[in-house]
Amino acid sequence: MTAKECILTRRSVRKFKDTPVDHALLEEIIETASYSPSWKHTQITRYIAIEGETKDRICKECYEAWPNNSVITAGAPVLMALCMVTKRSGFERDGSYSTWREDGWQMFDVGISCQSFSLACHEKGLGSVVLGIFDQQKVTDILGIPEGQELVALMPVGYPDEEPKCPKRKPVEDLLSYRN
Questions:
Q1: How is domain 3-175 classified at the CATH fold level?
Q2: Contact in structure between 85 and 109 (CB atoms under 8 Å)
Q3: Rounded to whole angstroms, how far apart are CA atoms 81 and 173?
Q4: In sequence order, what are the residues at sequence separation of 6 or more whose Cβ sits closer than 8 angstroms to the Cβ of residue 35?
Q5: Sign of the C-alpha dihedral, residues 4, 9, 10, 12?
Q6: What is the distance between the alpha carbons of residues 139 and 117, in angstroms, rounded to a whole number?
Q7: What would the pLDDT profile of 55-73 be if each residue is shown by its tens digit?
């Protein structure tokens, strides 16, 4: 599969088969995602693979604001938590900001890693979806995310049990402009 084919065919999957995801496959996907570019090569993204009772607890306790995310997560064999090491990407060694974006650059880096992870999953036949509505503090507590790291997103992962259609895309002329 070419990079273009991977990008054009990847969809957000919300229904998964019961089939477990082999840990060696997850490790291969993380290794691929580790090649994502990052600010000064800081590689701040960290991944936690969540299964079993911990995943069930997150489903029950952490999606009150958007209950459908609980249904999606419950149906996936693995829930990935994407975290970031804070105060590295976009920062100087003395802790000051490197750019006018201040601490915003770290979210940019995790976003790049998240996309790389999603595409690597797709290439290996797995589906994923990025979830942003959940009780961040409760999930942080359940997972024991250490000080100096912050939970950014949750991603249910598994073998797709649906083939979502491609949503309509804006034409290039709406997305691209030129300046001389």
A1: NADH Oxidase (3.40.109)
A2: no
A3: 36
A4: 116
A5: positive
A6: 21
A7: 999 999 999 999 999 999 9
